[in-house]
Design brief:
Mean pLDDT is about 85; it is low at about 205-215. The protein has 25 helices and twelve strands. It has helices at about 1-45, 45-70, 75-90, 110-145, 150-175, 175-200, 220-250, 255-270, 275-300, 305-330, 335-360, 365-380, 385-395, 395-415, 425-440, 445-470, 510, 525-530, 530-535, 570-575, 585, 600-605, 630-640, 660-670, 700-705, and strands at about 475-480, 480-490, 490-495, 500-505, 540-545, 560-565, 590-595, 610-615, 645-650, 670-675, 690-695, 710. By secondary structure, the chain is α/β, with parallel strands linked by helices. Helices cover about 60% and strands about 10% of the residues. Helix 1 packs antiparallel against helix 4 (about 110-145) and helix 2 runs parallel beside helix 4.
Length: about 725
């Protein structure tokens, strides 16, 4: 008994330094991702764009780190350690971690500048840290006399998940950006010390692994290609899920954390020493992909959180199944670095497909159903019943496949020819039962299963998207999201993701010039626009952040000077060039539009050059936090001058932004009033909205509100500090839902 306890103690003493080193490195690696994207926001703007581009940079740097780890694998382990310590020391020249001093030129796009800025700022550090995971696993195998190192990869991804979740939940709410940088830099020094400890545990005279007589057989090209594909699909599905849920389900702040976190957890499950959970999830994966794939494509906008949970569960199950298959086909430990290099290659290719190619090729998030179909093609399948196995392997299998195809063809015929297609809860429910039963019976027979899965993806939502894609001008996709133009009875609507970004009444010129939705005459911004002649005379200077359909332009009057600030060229094209919306054509032909991030554009405007600035720059429901900081409001104050007025739109389904504006107003010397607009049932073209009016001149604000009791004071939240470029957090602002 004592000998067994002593053996376990020796085993843990040997393994502990390597486990702690891997956990620390992975924690730092995924802590730095949201941290640096957060640092870039004030300079680059466009939160979703910054994050998507940053993810591609991270995957490319990860590939570089794994390639380096594989390249030095021909050296003796001790020499590998010395080389890697030298790389860590060289990368330390970039400490403390932060952004290099480079200003974004006017008109530059984050899609081009984020990669350059991030590689120059953190490239060497990220490269050095990313390489330590495969290296340390290889070293553990050598130091332990050949023990299986792959379980340490589970620990690696557990550390990655912890770092990712720790940032929004702990680090960002507790620390300013400067303090975050110092914390990470201290962690990097600790990591270098831990790597040194691991190096001292390596044998001094280890032969070069690939040249050793006992080296395992190298994998052939087909095996390497299979590893790459198995890594590509979950990586692409992770980014596609992030895009899909923020476009077609719910645009909650920080929602990208959940898909990436579950993706990382899937590695922990798939590479764990205990195989029960991974094997169970792999067995149920074909069922989950079939049922959840159909449900998520059908979608129920009235229950977005249910859709969200289904999409995340689908991603997790598919990722675990594919990573488990990869684990089952892993090579011997002496081929470990090549295995991880293939894995990182697939991860980078998945990111390129979902993050770069898909937004250019597709006008909707078609990459999401395509990757679901690819996952269904790759996951292992076993027949649910012995009788089904006999059916699909017996002499009548061709008849079974023909019956499945005939049933699917009948369903497609009904969907195309029926007056209402397969709409309605009853028809959808019946269709789901038929698809589910046919699909479950087909599990194990890949051609039949894939036919059913593809049919489910098309019938439950894909055909609606295809119909919009075929309709000229109905949908546009850009770097910043998916825009859909819909025609209703007597109106035309522009949707950005799940949020209405403008509605124009159709028919007479008078109707087409009528401001609607959040900008109706009774709204806070509507009242401000109507008060311009009274407040600033006939030559008022007006700026609007966020063009939308151009609705606010119909408040413009002769003699006034108007400017719009818009980050997305696609929005400008829809509002000005296509003729689908005629607000600009009817009310303000040849408008002045500044293309680029509004904060950067305003920083280049002269002081006291505007009288009124309307801030309405949400991407669906995502809040551009860099436009809500103390520094941003200082820019607004400079451009507006001492007697200017700022209108801020804070309507949001998920965040209570009132305390943020109250805090920044208090610290910046602004006087404020809020208008909560609730249109009557007779005002069908108007939408509920919340606008806040701010001015440094109390007399001007009093004149504007004119004692109207519906303009009320803001509610402050004790202890909530104003957002700054150095500190902000969404967590205290989340609403109950």
């Amino acid at each position: 008994m004592a000998e067994a306890s002593s053996a376990r103690a020796r085993w843990w003493t040997l393994r502990a330094p390597f486990v702690v080193t891997i956990l620390t490195g992975s924690f730092l690696l995924f802590l730095v991702q949201p941290m640096v994207a957060r640092m870039a926001l004030p300079r680059l703007g466009g939160a979703p764009a910054v994050w998507n581009s940053a993810m591609l940079v991270y995957q490319a740097l990860l590939f570089g780190g794994y390639a380096y780890a594989h390249a030095i694998g021909r050296l003796r382990p001790r020499h590998q350690g010395l080389v890697h310590l030298g790389v860590l020391l060289l990368a330390a020249l970039w400490l403390p971690i932060g952004l290099m001093n480079a200003q974004l030129p006017m008109g530059a796009q984050p899609a081009l500048w984020v990669p350059w800025l991030l590689v120059g700022s953190i490239g060497p550090l990220f490269f050095a840290v990313s390489a330590q995971a495969p290296l340390v696993q290889r070293w553990f195998s050598v130091a332990s006399g050949g023990q299986d190192p792959y379980a340490l990869y589970a620990a690696s991804n557990l550390g990655s998940f912890a770092g990712l979740i720790a940032y929004p939940l702990i680090v960002e709410p507790a620390l300013a950006v400067h303090a975050q940088s110092l914390l990470w830099s201290g962690g990097y020094v600790l990591l270098a010390g831990l790597v040194l400890v691991c190096v001292t545990m390596l044998p001094r005279r280890e032969p070069v692994a690939p040249a050793a007589p006992q080296a395992s057989m190298a994998p052939d090209r087909r095996q390497v290609a299979h590893w790459i594909v198995l890594a590509l699909v979950p990586s692409g599905l992770m980014l596609a899920t992030s895009t899909y849920i923020t476009t077609d389900i719910v645009a909650m702040p920080l929602l990208w954390v959940l898909p990436l976190g579950l993706y990382l957890l899937s590695f922990t499950v798939a590479f764990a020493e205990r195989r029960e959970v991974a094997d169970f999830i792999t067995r149920v994966a074909p069922i989950t992909i079939l049922l959840f794939g159909g449900i998520i494509m059908g979608g129920y906008q009235q229950r977005p959180l249910v859709n969200l949970m289904i999409a995340l569960m689908l991603l997790f199950v598919a990722s675990v199944a594919l990573h488990t298959l990869m684990y089952r086909r892993r090579p011997a430990p002496d081929r470990l670095t090549g295995f991880y290099l293939a894995m990182s290659t697939g991860g980078a290719l998945g990111g390129v497909f979902a993050g770069l190619i898909a937004p250019v090729v597709f006008d909707w998030t078609y990459e999401f159903p395509l990757l679901i179909l690819a996952a269904g093609m790759l996951v292992p399948q076993t027949y649910l019943l012995g009788s089904l196995r006999n059916l699909w392997l017996g002499p009548h299998r061709h008849y079974a496949l023909a019956a499945v195809i005939a049933a699917l063809a009948l369903l497609f015929g009904v969907a195309v020819t029926a007056p209402d297609g397969l709409s309605g809860n009853g028809a959808q429910g019946l269709l789901f039962i038929v698809i589910a039963a046919t699909g479950l019976a087909s599990i194990g027979a890949k051609p039949a299963y894939l036919a059913v899965l593809a049919s489910a993806l098309i019938l439950f939502g894909g055909y609606r998207s295809l119909a919009l894609s075929i309709e000229p001008g109905a949908r546009v996709r850009s770097y910043f999201g998916v825009y859909t133009v819909r025609d209703g009875t007597g109106l035309r609507e522009l949707d950005h993701g799940t949020t209405v970004h403008g509605i124009q009444l159709r028919g007479s010129v008078e109707r087409e010039r009528t401001p609607t939705t959040y900008y109706a005459t009774g709204s806070g911004v509507g009242q401000a626009m109507l008060a311009l002649p009274r407040l600033y005379g006939p030559h008022a200077r007006v700026g609007v952040v966020g063009l939308g359909t151009g609705t606010l332009s119909c408040y413009a009057r002769a003699g006034q000077d108007w400017r719009f600030y818009e980050i997305d060229p696609a929005v400008i094209h829809i509002a000005r060039d296509t003729g689908q919306f005629t607000y600009l054509a009817r009310c303000l032909p040849n408008p002045v539009i500044r293309l680029g991030d509004a904060r950067i554009s305003l920083e280049n405007e002269p002081s006291n050059s505007l009288d009124l600035l309307a801030l309405d720059a949400f991407s669906s429901d995502a809040v551009p936090m860099h436009l809500m900081t103390r520094e941003a409001f200082a820019t607004y104050a400079r451009v507006l001058g001492p007697h200017g007025m700022l209108l801020v739109h804070i309507s949001n389904r998920f965040l209570d932004l009132e305390p943020v504006v109250a805090a920044v107003a208090r610290e910046g010397g602004w006087h404020v009033a809020q208008f909560n607009y609730r249109p009557s049932a007779l005002q069908a073209d108007a939408s509920a909205s919340v606008w806040i009016a701010l001015s440094r001149d109390p007399a001007l604000l009093t004149t504007f509100t004119a004692g109207d009791p519906d303009w009320t004071a803001l509610h402050t939240r004790p202890g909530l500090a104003a957002w700054t470029d150095d500190y902000s957090s969404f967590l205290p602002l989340l609403k109950d839902f």
